[in-house]
């Protein structure tokens, strides 16, 4: 196991190097430079700007410089569009917010999803089962850019229980976390229910019951671990769905997170910022996927990594 | 006072009232799309303390459901259980949650498939100690010590180390040994072994049966040996109950049953398997037809469509009645069933259908 | 016992689709889905005929009105045909009848365009209330230029909006006329904020146009005060050939060649019902939602159809030939087909920039190549195939690493990156969304083909000497169709969702410089229009409802189809 983690960690820099390279050259392939939208700029000023961002150097020099800065100092360069700000500053500002959002949403999704799924599986065919699973189908089919605005309409505009925008107090965070977490709660509930039903039908659960264990112990100790395996294996792709979802949610609730910065930079064609954010997302994904794999291996002893 | 007749080692019939488990008129029906499946339909039998009782029958005859219904392990719905299962004076079916104090403590169960009956996600240690902690009030450490002792007793090498392994690191036979250790470690009064050897290799089967027999003698545990394999019963059990379509069709001591089967179905079972004590040339006769659909049982005797001796009375339902001292059966026949017409010898059948007819020219194989 | 299953099989295969349909119609969720899909798509397609509003037509004076709003307004169109030697200054048109708190929208279209050399717009102030002159708040010009001074039309197909008031148009002095040189059809929209303007002397408060065009079309709309409300038009000029008002010849102007000093036309008040209300600039929400539906459904359909066609062709061929040496050739053919299809799509859509082409080449080239080379061991055939493939596999290996890395990222990020780099045009969108979808399709079909190939009826066809081609198209394709149908119905909502996601976050696809507003864009717009207390909620709820219901419908239908076609369900009730 340790060897497996080490090997995956050693592979990490390679992945990131390739990611840096791809995003760097992709941005340079783009027709029109980053400043082509600023029209009527006198040539000398334009040259100045290009010199400032080292755009006047040959491509390989630019690449070498960018790579050196990223690798040695973690420096992602200056933002093309936010004057006087570096990409690092912008990311340092946005990332913690996005992390909080993702964390809250994940907590919401896992708590609600797992408990609803477990209860639904225990009370199979009860009204709770049908009710929660119908809600889950709704939650999975309706995109969060529909759910979010409707929550805003109801809870922030109509009843005014929560705030429309911002990221300071808990009141700001409830709706975004729910919006982001809902599809995952729904998915997790369904996966949990299916997983639990499959496990509860297994012979070893009968064995556990035949031992005289209390039903609660049977569920918690014997069924939950296996029943949650599908949920755990969903967490890997789930994280990447969550990143996509956070783009929307941060926009709906005007949360100053990394997702907003990414969209802004994409709309403004602020290439250094696009590259920087994509790189950060890549790192998070790779690391989190590794963690998920390790957790999976821990939960299912039949899995062997080598 | 209920009593049970059994044969002593000298072959004499003797009455005993030392009844551990008294199952009376047990029913278990399942509601399915196809109708109501009468998986167990009025089963009555007794188990004496320290005795071993065999329950035999084709697969699907309701043996497992009988066991599960007694132990309150049938999921309801779709199942519905009624009747009585009096264990040491307490009706298991009316205990409610209290049955947990009996399950695993006083009645332990070993299931058919050791591959799936152990939890793959938990270490053997956890699975063995939880019962000991729960029922004997041991600490985790003491429970672990006890568990290691038991693993050693059932013949698992290096138990101190292996107890920390997961089930997938054990072979099938070893897992069944673990199951046996797990079941017996709380020293129950009754062990229900539901086809404990069916999923195992033949050589391992004998070892496991021997192990169960040894431990039973050592601990004085009563055993219900559920199996479709008459050979298993012959080697282990003092008394035998034969089930067909959710009912008991014959009950007898093992020597009586094997020497002198009273029910046509029992006879069919006996003549359809090769026996070690018979010459190779003994004819094998399979039971014709299929086991009945439990949701749509025929009127009268459930075995009638397959019964070589059936006659007009069989359209009424026969009841399980005393037939001879120490034995009961459910059949309208006045006397013993007649032996069915043989179709082939054991040795022929064992060789397989392709080679049965030696006169047939061998076909060119590709 | 022996021939019963065969008979049953024969019956089953004949009735496979009939059976599936019967099962489908028993599934009420799927039927609901089917009805919804038919309803939404037919109303969207027929929107242009059944809804009397132009989705982009603004009525600023109306503003946001809730569903069911009945708008009483005066709408008119006057077509004036004038003689050829008309002096530009001799044909002028006045529009009068402004009231308080009103905004008017008037458009002037000149035909044929080349004859329109110049247009002046003059705004007169009231003689009665000289201190309360009308104020021009906005003028929309069909140009890209931002100020009137620079009014040189570069691309008449683009609209740019001028928000500065025209100081010269207000006050005593006669406004300086500006010119719109000819060359195309112009549409001058003039919006006059009449809030400063009380009821004034109609003769003196007016907008006047001059033009040299042989035909002028004058359109205006403003709220009517009552059902008898009228707008007066005064036409002045010489040699007016014909005047049509709302398509009807105007009495008194039927004589060709007649000089007209001054004449009056009365407008007609009309009632429009906005079923789903209007947005903040008075655009009809229903027609906008249906237009959005057209776009969303079209994007979903096109991307899906492209990916299905290519996926099925490539998947079936490669699956069928998987263990022969021809497979590499077939896969290359598949790749070529893909590129050809994308190329055709690109030409058809017309937005192909070199960048977009590069994107397509990258996406489309490596995906099928990798598909060829990464398949089963025997995919390329033992000898020739491997020889042929060795340079390919090296390149493919590198490319696959590349793809693996790119796919570490969520797929939508890649699409966003591509749209940022190669521009937000339809072509890039289809390419980016379609590239992955067709690959999935090809994989599914290939798997299905491989398993079908091992079935006896294909053997039978082979033995009886049928060609590969006829086996594929007579036996395999019909049997693969089930999977394809299911996958197609499930891909459409996925693509709709992805496109709307992009539109919602602001990455709307642009055609001719204008954002194409799919449901996602409308939902975003509705969100931003929400007021405290929940006002204007219909702007959000209506597109959201349309989108959700459609997604539900498509998903239910797809699930229903899958259940109906599931072989395990076959023969069961
Ligand atoms: N949960 C259930 N629902 C419906 N039928 C069941 C259920 N469990 C068992 N049965 C039916 O009960 C019958 C007896 O099964 P079982 O006791 O397992 O047979 P045996 O152990 O003798 O092989 C079978 O026909 C089986 O289909
Ligand atoms: S009752 Fe009749 S049918 Fe049933 S076993 Fe006896 S003889 Fe056979
Ligand atoms: Mg059984």
3D structure, described in words:
With 306 residues, chain A is an all-alpha fold. Helix content of chain A is 77%, strand content 0%. Chain A has helices spanning 2-29, 43-52, 59-73, 87-122, 127-141, 144-158, 170-200, 203-210, 215-227, 229-252, 258-268, 271-299. The longest helix of chain A has 36 residues, at 87-122. The radius of gyration of chain A is 24 Å and the shape is flat. Chain B contains 11 helices and 16 strands. Chain B has helices at residues 63-70, 114-117, 124-136, 140-153, 159-162, 172-184, 202-219, 230-236, 254-259, 264-272, 346-351, and strands spanning 4-7, 13-16, 19-32, 35-48, 52-56, 79-87, 90-91, 107-110, 190-194, 222-227, 239-244, 247-253, 283-284, 321-324, 327-329, 344-345. In chain B, the strands form 4 sheets. In chain B, strands 8-9-10-5-11-12-15-14 form an 8-stranded mixed beta sheet, with helices on both faces. In chain B, strand 11 (239-244) and strand 12 form a beta hairpin. In chain B, helix 3 packs across helix 4 (140-153), helix 4 (140-153) packs across helix 6 and helix 6 (172-184) packs parallel to helix 7 (202-219). The termini of chain B are far apart. Chain C has 573 residues and is α+β, with helices and mostly antiparallel strands. Chain C has 13 helices and 16 strands. Chain C has helices spanning 4-14, 16-26, 28-50, 285-320, 326-349, 354-374, 384-406, 411-422, 426-453, 456-463, 468-504, 519-529, 538-565, and strands spanning 69-82, 92-96, 103-111, 119-124, 135-141, 160-162, 187-193, 206-211, 215-223, 232-245, 248-249, 258-260, 264-266, 269-274, 510-511, 514-515. In chain C, helix 4 runs parallel beside helix 13 (538-565) and helix 10 crosses helix 11 (468-504). The longest helix of chain C has 37 residues, at 468-504. Residues 1-14, 98-103, 112-118, 132-205, 323-330, 346-356, 365-403 and 569-573 of chain C have low confidence and may be disordered. Classes of the chains: A mainly alpha (306), B alpha/beta (366), C alpha+beta (573). Residues 264, 301, 303-304, 307, 309-310, 314, 318, 331-333 of chain B line the site of iron/sulfur cluster. Adenosine-5'-diphosphate is lined by residues 30, 32, 37, 39, 57, 59-65, 78-79, 294 of chain B.
